[in-house]
Write a structure and sequence with these properties.
Distance between the termini: 40 Å
Strand content: 25-35%
Number of strands: 7
Number of helices: 2
Largest sheet: 7 strands, mixed
Length: about 140
């Protein structure tokens, strides 16, 4: 992945004219689903994940060598004119931008929805482990 250089100017194009027909969603993954996505993309034997939506969220289903793994998620509004709480929150836009191979930037569309993957027990265990390790390290310096 390329990075943007400080002080350099980049051309930003509006991208595909059909982007009005697309929804751009901000996805906040947990470590466990991120690792699983990496595993599935590297393993040609795994089938494509399935996603099911309901009124306020849904579930992502992975079929792997270890069986079926499900991750629940919630959906929420992250701003824009449709925001019910427009009195307390200003109208805001989050633009999804992609850097092309030639270095230019292309707008993929405006993000108005956030997908929050719900943590599973392994996420909590990892957090507890990190906190314990940080506490031990901090005690060494006191």
């Amino acid at each position: 992945m390329d990075s943007l250089l400080k002080g350099k100017k980049y051309k930003l194009s509006n991208g595909d004219e059909n982007k009005c027909n697309k929804s751009v969603i901000f996805v906040k993954p947990t470590d466990s689903i991120f690792k699983l996505i990496e595993e599935v993309t590297k393993n040609p034997g795994c089938s494509n994940p399935k996603i099911q939506f309901d009124e306020h969220g849904g579930v992502i289903i992975f079929h792997t060598d270890r069986g079926i793994q499900k991750f629940n998620f919630s959906l929420s509004d992250i701003g824009g004119k449709e925001n019910e709480d427009s009195i307390n929150l200003p109208n805001r836009n989050f633009e999804c931008v992609e850097q092309n191979r030639n270095g230019s930037l292309e707008s993929l569309g405006c993000m108005t929805i956030k997908m929050q993957i719900r943590a599973k027990e392994d996420s909590y265990e990892n957090t507890r482990f990190k906190v314990t390790a940080a506490e031990k390290e901090q005690k060494q310096y006191w």
